[in-house]
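S., here's the first fold you wanted:
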Amino acid sequence: MTMARPALDPELRELLADMPLISQLNPEVLAHLRQLPSTPIESLLEHWQVDRREVTVPAGDGAQIRLAVLSPAHTDRTTAAPCVYWIHGGGMVMGDRFSQIDIPLEWLDQFGATVVSVDYRLAPEATGTTLVDDCYQGLLWTAEHAAELGIDPARIIVAGASAGGGLAAGLTLLARDLGTPAIAAQMLICPMLDHRNTTTSSRQYSGVPGVWTGEMNAFGWRAVLGDLTDDAVPTYVSPALANDLSNLPDTYIDTGSAEVFRDEDTDYATRIWAAGGQAELHVWAGGFHGFDALYPQAHVSATARRTRTDWLARALRPHPNA
């Protein structure tokens, strides 16, 4: 029996009709996807007034983690800028520090924010807490070099999409528990939060081709968890496991009604509220996974992006005592 599913937004459905879709990921498909050429960073940045700097920072095990530091060109560097620490998507198995970079570049352009994007190691080559630890080391370096980078350490926002959103949530939990560095707010865009893959929405989007399906989600989680058993999965890896969501910074979560992560994302916002925290949640009707990144020209995509930007404008206001 076919499971009922929310309908796609009509404009998105028409755009998606021309996109080749798959339902499964396996090592062979992943190897093929990883070989597809990325858009050169010069092309990605050619329409933006951006100064770019590449740095490497040591991970906990001594590996070198790359960071791209993107700051507005021709600006007054005497004023401390806000910072968006960006974590890319790709199911924890694909992507690099320039994936979905157009999203934070809009904030660089609008708010004069410096964007720091981390090239965390990918599964299955890296497993367990390695990915979130890489993100943490990059964030720690950013905060420690705030004066050198010209950023305001009180206005560092952690943001990410899909797997990057899940890693952003895990990173924020980790920074809270370690007491440093300070995170002003977290923006979780269709975040990948729960390795259990058992929600209604994960079942609704299994067994059908899509941008990110229940089967693809299971593959991504198996890749990152490696040999970990369910009872040994750290909350920093699968943030939905966290029992304590108190004392988190202001949080923005959005998702589509027609995607795998809908229910785990709405549950995460609900539990932040239950812990006394502040979360803003948007479920975009008819949105599939990553709709606004794939088709930013669609009406619902433009609305989603504008709504995020409006929230970010509030989150990035200078502290009244600064």
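And the second, which I think is the more interesting of the pair:
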Amino acid sequence: MSYASQADLVERFGTDLLVDVTDRTSPPTGEIDADVVTRALEDTDAMIDGYLKGRYKLPLSSTPPLLRDLAQAIAVYKLHRDTVADKIRTDYTDALKMLALISAGSVRLDVEGVEPESSGASGVRTTDRERPLTPENMKGFI
């Protein structure tokens, strides 16, 4: 399951940008190269799965809007070969920060029943020594 599609990228960034970053033939065809987009989306999915697999059972049954947004920002960054606009670079770094927050559990995805249950081992455990003072050996002091 892909977190974003070529149609999502076209809707968000426009056809002209995608033609500019994917049309790598000589001479240029003036069309979006679907193979290049597919490769970038697959790389993006693998990256997102790497962040999610410690916290969520994969594959997810549905794609939350937050993940779709992050996938688009990451994929368009990966499509660039040379220089990247500041806005695209900022969106990419923000997406990675958000994925780190999701991975750490600070941000939770709105997906039913996929977060693994706690093992119960994360609670506090204290071990105390036996108490030598009891009412029996404190006679005369109490």
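Why I say that: The chain is about 50% helix and 0% strand. The helical segments are 6-13, 15-22, 34-52, 65-79, 86-104.

Talk tomorrow,
H.
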